Amino acid sequence: MADLALRFGGDLAVGATGDLLLADGEALTQQRVLRRVLTNPGDYIWQLDYGAGLAQFIGQPGAPAAIAGVARAQMQLERAVAALPAPIVNVTAGDDGTVVLSLNYTNAVSEQTSVLTFTL
Length: 120
Description:
Elements: E1 3-4, E2 22-23, H1 25-38, H2 64-77, E3 88-93, E4 99-106, E5 113-119
Antiparallel strand pairs: 1-2, 3-4, 4-5
Organism: Acidocella aquatica
Protein name: Phage tail protein
């Protein structure tokens, strides 16, 4: 089932015909995963325990293991992500303080493996 295309922190997108752009398949799953790991617990008023709140780790020294643990726990709660094989979360911290999060997961519907990598 399609949903509105909305990249976390962005605006609704307009399609080629001027209608609101829809996301489905892997694009929708990526959208859901990003929303889950970047939403702060308590911010989603319909489900107060939703979200990993990874922004809480900005400026925290030596937090890659904690980031990975929180992200992994939230990935296991996302219904768009297959439980088996379990999602793999890799966090690397650069010398400049940049943190790169790589989420390797299997789409629960298509059963395709995907990797979503972004900088916190």
